[in-house]
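Hello again, I could really use a second opinion on something today. I've been puzzling over a protein and I'd love to understand its fold better. I'm sending you its amino acid sequence along with the backbone structure tokens. It would help a lot if you went through both lines with me. I've dropped the whole record in just underneath, so have a look.
***
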Amino acid sequence: MIVVDASILIAFFLREEGWNEFTRHMVRTVSLDHAVKEFYNAVWKAVSIKKKIDSEEALRCVSLLKKYLDKTCS
């Protein structure tokens, strides 16, 4: 089991620099509840403030996180 914080989740799902280094570890990760809240906040910030992604990409990232959580939390 590997415990990850929100920064790893964010880097992975928003495909920030170096995100692919986390790919092999994401299968067996555990995170704290607040990491999901931080993830949503980072997605909002990427759309609204930093303009790094558009709202369509944000929805795709959120959808991917939900699928990931469904698979790993069941």
About this structure: The beta strands are 2-4, 29-31. The chain has a mean pLDDT of 86. The chain has one domain: 2-72.
